[in-house]
Amino acid sequence: MIQIANILLTRKCNLSCSYCAISKNYEGMPEEYPSLSNYHMTEMNTEYVCTMLDVLKKHNPDIFVIFYGGEPMLRKDIVEIIKHSNDIDLNYTIITNNSDEVQKAILNLVNSVVVKGITSSVDPVIYDLHTDDDRYKKSILGFERLENLKKYVKDVVAEVTVTKDNVKHLYMLVSDLSKKGISSSITFIDISKNPYYDFSDVTDSESLIRPSEELHNQLESIKNDSSLDIHMKDELLPLLEKYCDSSYDCEIEKNVHNVTIDADGTLRLCLRIRGTKTAEKSILNYINSNGDIDKSLLENIKYDKDMYCRGCNWTCPIFSGLVENNPSMKDKLIHTDKRG
Question: Which of 6, 322, 333, 337 to pair with 258, CA 20 to 30 A apart?
Fold first, then answer.
C-alpha cells in the first residue's frame, strides 16, 4: 500500500541551486528524457491534481502527501489545491524554498485556507557563518520564517540536510529548532549515481557522510534527548547511520509503499530517479477511481529499479517502508497541530 506520495506540482523554480537538477537540463541527460520545457507546457491542471488526490486518498485514507517542486508556491492554483486537500481530509506538507520571491504567495495561502504543514530547508551550515553562501542565507531565512509561520500553520517543519562538513552542528540545530516549536526532518546529503538520477546534481561520492565517531556521537546525543521534536527519531536515526554511504534499498519493487508523481502527471520510479518504463503512464492510468493499483505498476517499477537504481539514503522511503512493515507506526507520519 502507498504510504507516502511525493507530488512535483511544478518543475519551475525561482532559484537555481547548484545541487538541484529538477528544474533544468543537465549534462548527460538521457536522450529518452523529454526537454524540461515540456514539463512547463504540460503541467497537471487543477482538476487533474484534485482528481489525483481523490484517488490517492481512496487508495489509502491515511496516505501522506508531500507537495514538491520546483517551487510549489509558484503554482497559481496552490490555494485551490490545498483547499481541496483539506476538504478530503488529506495529510500533507508543502516543501517550499521560503525565499523572498514566494513570500507573497505563502502569505496569500495561509490567509486564505488552513494549512496543515509547511516544510523548508534549515541546514546546520547556519553555524558556520558563511554569510556569502546561498545555502547559509536560505537556512537563516528558513529558520526565521518557519517560526513566524507557526501562528498560521498547524505544523512547521525544517528539512535538515546534513553534510560531512556540518554534521558536527546537527544536535545543536535540532535542539534550537525544537525550542522554537519547529519539527525537524533529518536527511543526509545524497548523490546522483548515473544520468537517470535526475533530481540531484551532486555527483561526487566524496560529498557523502561516512561512518565516524563524530556522526555516531551526534546521533546518540539526539536519540537520548527526549525534548527534541524529530520525525520518527528512534526508528530513523539508526537507519540513517547504517545507510549514510547511500546504500539503502527501499524494496518498492516488492510492495509499492512510496510513489512520486512528476509535474506532467506521469509516475517516476522515485523522487531521485525518473525512470523510463514507469514514466510511460500517468498516475491515473496506474490507480483507478476506486483506488485500486494496476498490476503494471509493480512490473514497470521493478524494470526501472533493476535498470537504474544503485541505492540512496533518501529519508522519505525509509519512513514509508517503516510504516508499511509496521502499520501501527502510521500516526508518526501525520503532522500534528503544534500551534498551542
Answer: 337
Residues 105, 76 contacting (CB under 8 angstroms): no
Domains of the chain in sequence order: 4-333 (3.20.20.70)
Contacts of residue 124, defined as CB under 8 A and 6 or more positions apart, other chains included, come to 160, 162, 163, 166, 167, 168, 169, 170, 172, 173
Task: Identify the sign of the CA torsion 203, 204, 205, 207.
Answer: negative
Q: Give the pLDDT mean for 112-139.
A: 81
Residue 110 has a pLDDT of 96
Q: Which of 275, 231, 278, 269 is nearest to 250 (CA)?
A: 269
CA neighbor of 152 nearest in space, from 115, 112, 178: 115
Vertex 321: Cα angle to 13 and 6 (nearest 5):
20
∠ at Cα 298 (191, 29), nearest 5°? 35
Q: Which 8-state DSSP code applies to residue 201?
A: -
300, 234 contact by CB (below 8 A): no
- Asked whether the beta carbons of 22 and 72 are under 8 A apart, the reply is no
Residue 329's Cβ-side half-sphere holds a number of Cα atoms within 13 Å equal to 16
Exposed, middle or buried: residue 305 (CB in 10 Å: 0-12, 13-18, 19+)? buried
Write down the residue that cell numbers 497541530 correspond to.
337
Q: What is the mean pLDDT of residues 257-280?
A: 94
The grid cell for 173 is 540545530
For residue 265, give the nearest of 53, 37, 35, 12 by alpha carbon.
53
Per-residue confidence band for 218, with pLDDT thresholds at 50, 70 and 90: very high
Across 257-262, average pLDDT? 96
The answer to whether 65 touches 90, Cβ cutoff 8 Å, is yes
The reply to whether the predicted model has a pTM over 0.85 is yes
CA dist 266 and 44 (Å) reads 9
| Residues 126/143, Cβ–Cβ less than 8 Å | yes
Per-residue model confidence (pLDDT) at position 261: 97
CA-to-CA separations, 280 to 129, 145, 218, 298, in angstroms, rounded: 46, 39, 43, 13
